[in-house]
Amino acid sequence: MTERAVPDFSLAQICDSGQCFRMAQKDSSTYTVTAGDRYLEITQEGVKCTFHCPEDEFDCFWKHYFDLDRDYKEYKERISSRDTYLSQAAQFGEGIRILNQDLWEMTVSFLISQQNHIARIRRCIQNISEKYGEEKQAPDGTVYYAFPSAEVLAGLSEDGLKDCNLGYRSKYVVRTARSVANGDVLLGDIQKMPYREAREELLKLFGVGEKVADCICLFALHHLEAFPVDTHISQALKAHYPKGFPSRRYKGMQGVMQQYIFYYELKGKKEVQIPQG
Question: Which end of the chain has a smaller Cβ tally under 10 Å, C or N?
């Protein structure tokens, strides 16, 4: 086990932030996360976190995955005191971090996300992994499934993933898998590109629009200047930023602000009502 005191970090908030779909609550203080072909259980009590893995695995993978070397307090301190809405959104989602996730898995995840909700996306990803991913076993005996490779999914018919509850999105995933497996799209090259270039390459994939491309850039490539705009964000922009989000002020961290806004729009207004303006 590996113990760390981690400020500005909440497993509950990250789990519900809409950026990862193979993270789940096991009990009141413990969460599980499957990433690629890895599995982890984490227990959190306040700032104290217990990562149920050896120190070397934490250091070489999970510390980077959860972006634990970055000081998120600095992001919150950069928020304008005059921006009441963003200040409250950041306070409400103060434990959110932008994860460093696998590019292929995130490409599939956000292709599935279109016109979909988080619970259903999770079921789709679970179905795909269980049906086509490699069965693995954690040290404690827990059985889990690695995310299937592009080569595996490329061999399916375009409707092959409808059985996994993807519906019309099946062809998006299968066609994209074929593009990756055939070498028409080189994910390794995209990983090395700056934000604008990576975004343009992702837009060439079948079924990838601007919002999906920005989600992949933010949650897989960690381009923090990406600012995905979905229905929740669009509503917030209309209500609070009619002249547009002040991207210049938050240059290089727009994606962090986006996550605060998204999480607040998704969860916060059920608990807190703030003035419109």
Answer: C
Which residue's entry shows tokens 């996730």? 101
245 and 227 Cβ atoms separated by less than 8 Å: yes
Q: Which pTM does this prediction carry?
A: 0.92
- DSSP-assigned letters across all residues of 61-126: IIHHHTTTTS-HHHHHHTS-TT-HHHHHHHHHTTT-------HHHHHHHHHHTTT--HHHHHHHHH
DSSP letters spanning 152-175? HHHTS-TTTTGGGT-TTHHHHHHH
- Give the C-alpha separation, 34 to 136, whole Å: 11
Would you state the pLDDT for residue 114?
78
Q: In what helix (H) or strand (E) does residue 5 lie, and over which residues does it extend?
A: strand 2-5
CB-facing half-sphere around the CA of 9: CA atoms within 13 A: 22
> Please, are residues 117 and 13 in contact by the beta-carbon 8 Å criterion?
no
- Tens of pLDDT, residues 220-275: 999 999 999 998 899 999 999 999 999 999 999 999 999 999 999 988 765 444 33
Q: What's the confidence (pLDDT) of residue 269?
A: 65
Residue 250: name the closest of 6, 10, 83 by CA.
83
